[in-house]
Amino acid sequence: MFIVSLVLARVRQLAETRPTVTPTNSEREFLTSQPKRPVVKHMTSNHSSYTLKGVRFGGFNTFNGWNIFANNWYANIVEAAQQHQALESKFADARNAAAEQNQQCETLKVELARTIETVTKERQKREELEAELQDMVETATEERQKREAIKDELKDALDTAAVERQKRKALEAKLVGACITAGGVKQRLDEDLQRACQRRQMLQLKIHDALNAAVGPNQQFELLDFKLIDVRDEIEELKRRHLTLEIAVEKGHEIVEYNFGDACKAMDEVIQQWDGRWEAMQREHIAENENLPAEIQLMSPPSTPHKSSDVVLQMLVIEH
User: Fold this and answer.
1) Residue 214 has pLDDT above 90, yes or no
2) Coiled coil where (predicted)?
3) How are the residues of the chain apportioned to helix, strand and coil, as percentages rounded to the nearest 5?
């Protein structure tokens, strides 16, 4: 394109420097009818070709004057016009080719813009999908952490229940020991009471015999009377201790039964609460798995809490 522009500029410069006056047919016939004159007649003494009168197209050794080479300038003009047309044709072809290339370039630019837009949309979609996947993964991680925390809490509750069960067993053992001890004490008190009653009966018989016989000194009678009073006091003390022990044993039984009932009731409430929370978590987990894609669905939670609660219930039933 640069060479073509240079050639066109040169042609335009030549066209502007050439004469614009074109001879008519009469002038052409007049010039051709004139007799040719020798060239030496028109030359000066220094033989310079640039001092000739009829020179129109300069240059060394150029003698195409109006009266010598009358038709040479027209041929040059025709040749220049042909070259100009050829250059114009080449320029038009080059311009058309450039226009086609520009059009192709614009088309490629449009296609490239569409491709870039498509790639941008796909990148945005991929980023959105990555963000959604990251949110799903974070949600699943949080749910897994919550489930593990609930498992730990349930394990702690089961451990607490086991400790309470051991305490209850120890309390029952103590109660059994207390019952055995109370039974032994009661048996001893009964034996003492029975012996006291026998002694009283014997003393009463002796007093009765003494009264009936009406013999013996007055001191023996008073001594027997004192002994009878002591025996009666001892019997009353034994009765009072026996009654106190029975009341204490009954209160111990009531306290143990009350504590055992409260412990069982609290354990049932704790197990029911954990079962309710676990069922709610399972429902939420199933709903979340239904909303998640098939590729990233998580495993269903194990049924360990339910099994643990069932085992606890069975143990409580067996103990009852």
Assistant:
1) no
2) 77-248
3) 85, 0, 15
* Each residue's pLDDT tens digit, 102-129: 999 899 999 999 999 999 999 999 999 9
End-to-end CA distance of the chain: 109
- Rounded-to-integer distance, Cα 242 and Cα 185, Å: 9
pLDDT in tens, 141-196: 998 898 888 888 888 888 888 888 888 888 888 777 777 777 777 777 778 778 87
* Domain hosting residue 192, numbered range: 152-292+303-319
Residue 37 lies in a domain: no
Does a structural domain hold residue 231?
yes
List Cα–Cα distances, 290 to 138, 268, 294, in angstroms: 17, 33, 9
CATH number at residue 175: 1.10.287.1700
User: Considering the entire predicted model, what is its pTM?
Assistant: 0.31
Domain for residue 88, yes or no? Answer: no
Using CB atoms within 10 Å of the CB of residue 139, give its burial: 0 to 12 exposed, 13 to 18 middle, 19+ buried: middle
Domain count, the chain: 1
Residue 30 lies in a domain: no
Report how far residue 128's alpha carbon sits from residue 122's, in angstroms, rounded to the nearest whole number. Answer: 10
Task: Look at the chain and count its residues.
Answer: 320
C-alpha span between 217 and 210 (Å, rounded): 10
